[in-house]
From TrEMBL:
Pfam family, one: 2OG-FeII_Oxy
InterPro entries, sorted: DIOX_N, IPNS-like_FE2OG_OXY, IPNS-like_sf, Iron_ascorbate_oxido_reductase, Oxoglu/Fe-dep_dioxygenase_dom
Any one GO molecular function term: metal ion binding
Protein family (similarity comment): Belongs to the iron/ascorbate-dependent oxidoreductase family.
Domain Fe2OG dioxygenase residues, every copy: 164-303
Highest taxon listed in the record's lineage: Eukaryota
Gene3D superfamilies hit by this protein: B-lactam Antibiotic, Isopenicillin N Synthase, Chain
GO biological process: small molecule biosynthetic process
The UniProt record lists the keyword Endoplasmic reticulum: no
Protein name listed in UniProt: Fe2OG dioxygenase domain-containing protein
Classification via SUPFAM superfamilies: Clavaminate synthase-like (SSF51197)
PANTHER family: 2-OXOGLUTARATE (2OG) AND FE(II)-DEPENDENT OXYGENASE SUPERFAMILY PROTEIN-RELATED (PTHR47990)
Alphabetic keyword roster: Iron, Metal-binding, Oxidoreductase
Length: 344
């Protein structure tokens, strides 16, 4: 039977007893070992803040093209900012999204490109605060995973994420015409770092590879040959998934499950018609079926650059290390450099 993404109440870990914390750590350990994804509720980030983040995202992406162009990264030292539809590619496939990325406001090495206060008053202040809320949740989850493995305080995952060099990404998938044969808005991939948070709107479209038949092939082979399972958006939850470095750190214990963004299932499976949009056919404007726009907020965590990712001893009791040690910073720089971008 294909797996489902487990839903876990995180409140007992945040404010429960020692036995409560251990129970939740065990549940999350099991879920990440079997599926690689969880849906977390009572996660500690207030819903009004999540709602406000989506509202700010809508305002940001409603800016004119010239206004959004003003917040594109303008130099190598400014590596966060706006990215337009088609700027990012995965395996030469265009990602049908635009995004705004920002890093830790306390990081003075990686600068952020912000809209001016005149252009979007209050946006920077809110986004920096929301960044810190997500960072706190990441550190809570790292504590949880450290507890699951019974790691000592000096070896806990949090010690290797002290600088919180994370990335917050506001993402907009514009309305797009629906071709015959379906639509992939963001091709199959796995994330680079340790843990990812994802807040979804109600439109849907996130899919994960069926891990019950998961092969060791790369993302392209998995997209061609594996079944994908829709992850239903659930109000008040955040999706959490494992990245490649955490999978490697755990010696494969936790799965960095391949995932993608496709058309929502109610269009794909039920044959329902979406909204119409105008397109041009033979020089004439026509109304055609379209997939509605989608908003999401992603938060990517990674270890501090000097961290050496080496299989933990506790994850090697029944099998030897599967991979050699690697430097986290070098790995991430190489991976990010392989992402084609039309601005480069």
């Amino acid at each position: 039977m294909p797996p489902t993404v487990p839903s876990i109440d995180f409140k007992p870990f945040i404010c429960g007893s020692a036995s409560d914390r251990l129970r939740i750590a065990s549940e999350i350990d099991e879920a990440l070992s079997s599926v690689g994804f969880i849906q977390l509720h009572n996660h500690g980030i207030e819903q009004h803040k999540v709602d406000a983040c989506f509202q700010w995202s809508q305002r940001l992406f409603a800016l004119s093209e010239s206004e959004k162009a003003s917040i594109r990264p303008c130099s190598p030292s400014y590596n966060h900012g706006y990215s337009g539809v088609g700027d990012e590619k995965i395996r030469d496939c265009i990602c049908m999204k635009e995004s705004f990325d920002c890093g830790n406001p306390e990081d003075h090495e990686r600068h952020n490109c912000w809209p001016t206060e005149d252009l979007l008053p209050g946006f920077r202040h809110f986004t920096e605060d929301f960044f810190q809320d997500c960072a706190y949740l990441i550190h809570q989850l790292l504590q949880c995973l450290s507890l699951a493995l019974n790691l000592s305080s000096k070896d806990s995952f949090g010690q290797y994420h002290a600088r919180s060099l994370f990335d917050l990404s506001l993402i907009h998938y514009p309305t797009i015409s629906l071709p015959s044969g379906g639509l992939i808005r963001n091709p199959a991939h796995s994330d680079f770092g340790t843990l990812t948070l994802l807040f979804q709107d109600s439109v849907g479209g996130l899919e994960i590879a069926d891990t019950s038949s998961r092969s060791s092939e790369g993302s392209a082979k998995i997209e061609e040959g594996e079944r994908f399972i829709h992850v239903d958006p659930r109000p008040g939850t955040v999706v959490v998934n494992v990245g490649y470095l955490l999978m490697r750190w755990s010696n494969g214990r936790w799965k960095d499950t391949v995932h993608r963004v496709s058309e929502p299932p109610r269009w794909k499976e039920q044959g329902l018609q979406g909204p119409n949009c105008n397109d041009t056919v033979d020089g004439n404007s026509v109304s055609i079926e379209a997939v509605p726009e989608r908003y999401s907020v992603a938060y990517f965590s990674a270890p501090d650059p000097a961290t050496v990712i080496e299989a933990l001893r506790c994850c090697c009791e029944n099998q030897p290390p599967k991979w050699k040690p690697i430097n986290a910073g070098e790995y991430l720089r190489k991976k990010k450099a392989t992402i084609p971008n039309t601005d480069k």
